[in-house]
Specification:
about 300 residues; alpha+beta; Aminopeptidase; 2 domains; twelve-stranded mixed sheet; about 30% helix
Length: about 300
């Protein structure tokens, strides 16, 4: 559950944070900075691209809509950025600890469920948030970013074949995305997934693996931006797991992305999921960096 403080004033460092709800303004200011390290900035880049093309994708939650921002250092150049699309955690680039603390001041009053960042940045931000709001802060997820090297098809390959999902699959897709969100505990709860499905279908962003005409697994992929795409979510219903379907559908969308001209294909895994981390490496994905998602709750910390 979101927890938010209300500071009376920002520190001097905060003056270097600029915020906007205009994605065009954000990309004009911070786009070059983000694209310079597109893999590590994949979430901000892809979410901003979705906002640019489909502003209704992230509807206002608890009275707060999407907010974006950038930080300028002493040189006057952009040195950091963030994106917040409630109810999801705020996502930040790597910035100095003091700058992360001051970002917490800038975001005071927003319904904030947590922070997604490099561990040191996340801890600095969360420490400031906890001190002001008395929130309980806990590790929600430790995750690893992978980049595709040489794609290797699963061996042995499962039966079946991939096909791009269409509007006729909407009911199935919404149900599976909801099940994935619950299982992954992505902080969206039981939010309606219909907008997410429509947005994904708009760019052929959902692929099904079928066996004898029956869908058995699902993989999503983001729009290509800055020559980069990210795979996810990947979901197989529990009763259909253990047959290699997730590996196959992930390989299929990865091949699809490469064929469409992507220079980098990325994905995130939950480090607690040893199976997922193993299968993605077997089909050619290699570690890039680790991040942490820290969750904030209304319960008062000690």
């Amino acid at each position: 559950m979101a927890c938010g403080p209300a500071w009376p004033a920002a520190s001097m460092w905060c003056m270097s944070w600029q915020t906007t709800d205009d994605v065009a303004e954000f990309l004009a200011a911070a786009g070059e900075f983000l694209r310079a390290d597109r893999a590590r900035n994949t979430v901000i880049l892809t979410a901003a691209e979705t906002l640019r093309l489909n502003s209704a994708r992230y509807a206002a939650t608890a009275g707060a809509g999407p907010l974006l921002g950038w930080w300028t250092g002493a040189s006057g150049g952009v040195g950091g950025a963030f994106l917040h699309t409630p109810p999801f955690p705020v996502v930040t680039t790597d910035v100095p600890a003091r700058v992360a603390e001051d970002l917490a001041v800038v975001l005071a009053g927003r319904p904030l469920a947590g922070v997604n960042a490099d561990r040191a940045v996340a801890e600095a931000f969360a420490g400031a948030w906890r001190e002001a709001a008395g929130c309980l802060v806990e590790v929600h997820r430790e995750q690893r970013l992978y980049r595709l090297g040489e794609l290797t098809w699963p061996d042995p390959a499962p039966s079946g074949a991939a096909r791009i999902a269409t509007a006729t699959d909407t009911g199935l897709l919404a149900g599976w995305l909801t099940a994935f969100a619950r299982e992954a505990d992505d902080m969206a709860g039981d939010a309606d997934q219909s907008a997410a499905v429509r947005d994904r279908l708009d760019h052929d962003g959902l692929t099904l693996w079928e066996v004898d005409g029956e869908a058995v697994s699902l993989a999503g992929i983001t729009r290509q931006v800055a020559g980069m795409v990210r795979v996810g979510p990947v979901y197989t219903p529990p009763e259909l797991r253990g047959h290699g379907y997730a590996s196959a559908v992930t390989a299929a969308v990865s091949k699809q992305a490469l064929a469409a001209g992507a220079e980098e294909v990325l994905l995130y895994t939950d480090l607690a999921n040893e199976v997922a981390n193993s299968i993605y490496q077997r089909i050619g994905y290699r570690p890039v960096e680790d991040r942490v998602v820290l969750a904030f709750s209304q319960e008062r910390g000690l």
